[in-house]
Amino acid sequence: MASPSHAPPDHGADSVETRSPELRKDPVTNRWVIFSPARAKRPTDFKSKSPENPNPKPSSCPFCIGREHECAPEIFRVPPDDDPNWKLRVIENLYPALSRNLETQSNHQSATATSRTIVGFGFHDVVIEAPLHSIQLSDIDPVGIGDVLIAYRKRIEQIAQHDSINYIQVFKNHGASAGASMSHSHSQIMALPVVPPTVSSRLGGTKDYFDETGKCCLCEAKSKHFVIDESSHFVSVAPYASTYPFEVWIVPKDHSSHFHHLDDVKAVDLGGLLKLMLQKIAKQLNDPPYNYMIHTSPLKVTESQLPYTHWFLQIVPQLSGVGGFEMGTGCYINPVFPEDVAKVLREVSLT
């Protein structure tokens, strides 16, 4: 993400034909992105080819209210205390990628274990965001979305008590092509015994930027060319070197390393801005499938790392696939400049 001093001139959303390819390196993701507008139509013409139309309620969705007995074990619900009229539930994943039953083994690695192999201990949970099948996250009011965010926080705080866990990833897959196996609105939490490579790369990139400038690169996110909207405590931006077309980040205005330090007031504030961004993306891009991810700091981040670690929420509409070049190089081609994306999304009217 560039600081205002690094911001390129505002070329305007309709000047695609005059733009030259450009490579930008993002200090946050620590990767190069090729912007190649000649490969694309105008930014205002981007639409999803496979919109995520609301699915009719299947005959047996275990996430729907009244079918709680068909799910994996419940961890907690809101309101609590077995209230049958729940608003959201956090449950174990029926098909977890990691096992919560291996903690003893993970704390006592066998003599044959190496740094390349460790016990698959971890947590894989599901957050059912609404009791009714017809409700999508963007249909919920800011307070209700805030409740979902607070549920993430509560579950992270619970999991963080386990010493073997080093990183916790919150993510949402909306739509089959975005990886959602269930059409009922939900998100997931995975807790890992390792720090994933993308997270390590992010820490390296933000450290380099801090060492060079003395500033946190995500605190520098508020360039006027890239801002879409803002609330009291958060700003939504099209990142300076966005990996994907129409990618949006929501960033805390105040420096904050850990998502789970989010208080209730800020959770509602973030809920409102997240709702606005999801609605704008749906309207502008023909209701595309999407993913969002909360990028936070490792649980055991050191005191010296806090000045350059800053959490944020990334929204990625599924508009294009990943090809061999991207898989082979880790370098992505984006056909639309982020300053054009910011301009287009700023101008979306929801009325």
TrEMBL record:
Keyword Transferase: yes
Any single Pfam family the record assigns to this protein: GalP_UDP_transf
Gene3D superfamilies per UniProt: HIT-like
Compositionally skewed regions (Basic and acidic residues) per UniProt: 8-28
Keyword terms: Carbohydrate metabolism, Nucleotidyltransferase, Transferase
Signal peptide extent: none
Region ranges (Disordered): 1-61
Segments forming a coiled coil: none
SUPFAM superfamilies, alphabetized: HIT-like
NCBIfam families: galT_1
The protein's name in its UniProt record: Galactose-1-phosphate uridyl transferase N-terminal domain-containing protein
Organism the protein comes from: Brassica napus (Rape)
